[in-house]
Fold:
Amino acid sequence: MAGGTAPSGEPGADGNLRVVLLGRQGSGKGTQADRLCALYGVPHMSTGDAFRAAVRSGSELGKTAQGYMERGELVPDDVVIDVIRAHVFGPGSAYGFVLDGFPRNLSQAEALEGLAAPEGLDGCINLEVSLDEVLRRLSSRRVCSSCGATYNLVSSPPKVAGRCDSCGGDLYQRDDDTEEAIRRRLEIYEAETAPLVAWYRERGLLISVDATGTPDEVTARVVAGVEERRGHPRVVAG
Ligand code: AMP
Structure:
């Protein structure tokens, strides 16, 4: 998890934002989650980052997750929900959060509804990008092995080839960013995760955002959507 302190005068400096991010792989969830967390002063929880860190450390969680990840399949719900329960809703957790990569299917969304009750969520941000565009982005995506920062060799390359601008770490291509695993992950997204768009819309929580353009342009749309949504009374779950 990574967090940040909201600069004073920025939107929502009260630090209580509670949102989830939906969007195809490559839609920019990680980038926008980092930016929202810095703006609103809440922690960032990426289940994919948590699993990659667990695989690197060789923990039991990593051993469980590794095979699923390499095949581009979802890690079993009970494993993922336990991670969210411990890291986002455990004792001493911050009130607000940005969830990136969770929920991924209906049973995870229902579990989250229970965990987030009674206050519920401020919204579900859906980053909308075409299939062609995400395929283009994913094949040129590189990630820092040290701090997890994400680059795109075409649209946002590092200043020095193969090196992270922020920490100097080595950049690598994710094992699951191969053509076969990308195809599998996108199929699972359409079958299991895309239906959550309608599910959140029915609950009055959906914030749809056009996620094409520069990261700054997308952030401006995301913040506008969040602020509009937060002008409404918070939806109480359950
Ligand atoms: P991501 O970085 O979000 O693309 O996640 C990378 C991989 O981690 C996925 O392809 C899954 O194998 C696993 N993963 C991440 N989040 C979840 C989740 N909410 N449910 C199941 N598996 C997940």
In short: The radius of gyration is 17 Å.
